[in-house]
Amino acid sequence: MLDSRQSMEIKVDIQAAPLSLDELWAFLAAAEGGGIAIFGGTTRRITGERVTEQLSYEAHESMARREMEKLAVKAGEQWDVLRIGLIHRTGIVPVSEASVLIGVASAHRGPAFEAARFLIDELKVSVPVWKKEHFADGTTEWQGDDWVR
Amino acid sequence: MTVIVNVFARLREQLGTSAWTESVPEGTTSRQLVKVLSEREAAISELENVLRVAVNDEWVQKDRILEDGDEVALLTPVSGG
To answer: Which of the residues A48, A74, A144, B21 has the least number of beta carbons within 10 Å of its own beta carbon?
Structure first.
C-alpha cells in the first residue's frame, strides 16, 4: 500500500558567506505546502549594558552538520513537516546580519511554527558551534560557560 | 596507537593549535585521555569539568575506549545560534 505522506527533505549547511534567505525560501517553497516558517538569529547590538560590534562563530563543521541533520530528522518524527532547512554561518557576523536561519515548510502552519521553535532551541543545546563577542570597547569574549543540559 | 585531538574556539586559542596527534596506550578511554592532557595543559585542566568529548563526530561517554586513528574532539559548552 502506498504511504500518502511525502518523505521529508532536509537541507543543512555551514558557510562563511552571508546566509541567503532567497535560497532557503526557494528550497522550502518547492515543497508546495501551505506554510513556511523561518526563524533568523541575528547579531544583537545591545546586551544589558554592553555594546557589541560583531560576533564571530566557529564550528566543528563535520560534527555540526551531523548534529543539525539529526535534529531535523527528530523534528520530522515529531511534526508533520515537508522540508527543513538549517543553515549556520561561521566567521564574522556583523550586527543585524543573520548567523542562523531555520526554515520549515509544512502543509499547515502549526507544525512549521512548532518545529522551527524546537529546531532553534535544540541547535543551541547540542550543535558544536561557538560564538565570540567582539565588544565596542575592544574586548572579546567566547560565550558558553556551561551546558544547557 | 595514535589518536588525533581536535579543539575549537577558546580552547583552540588558548592552546595555539586546532589539532595534534597523541600517542596513547591501547585501551585508553576518552576519560583517561582528557586526564593526561589536562595534567599537561593548564588550559585543558581549567576547563576539564565542563569538557565533553566527541569521537569521529559523535558524542561519547567519558569511558569510551579509543581506537587507533580516532578523531577525538574536546568540546567546551556550545553557544551557537
So the answer is: A48
| Cβ separation B80–A145 shorter than 8 A | no
C-alpha cell at A16: 562563511
Please report the pLDDT score of residue A6 as a whole number.
62
CATH number, residue B12? 3.10.20.30
| CATH homologous superfamily of A9-138 | Molybdopterin biosynthesis MoaE subunit (3.90.1170.40)
User: A58 vs chain B: nearest CA distance in angstroms?
Assistant: 6
Instruction: Return the residue matching grid coordinates 536561519.
Output: A101
Establish if B8 touches chain A: CB-CB under 8 angstroms.
yes
Interface membership of A15 toward B (CB under 8 Å): no
The string of DSSP letters for A41-76 reads EE--SEETTEEEEEEEEEE-HHHHHHHHHHHHHHHH
In a domain, B55, yes or no: yes
Report the SS3 class of residue A145: coil
Interchain pair B57, A66: CB under 8 A? yes
pLDDT tens digit string along B28-62? Answer: 999 999 999 999 999 999 999 999 999 999 999 98
Domain count, chain B: 1
Distance from CA of B56 to the nearest CA of A (A): 8
Q: Which pLDDT score, from 0 to 100, does residue A7 have?
A: 85
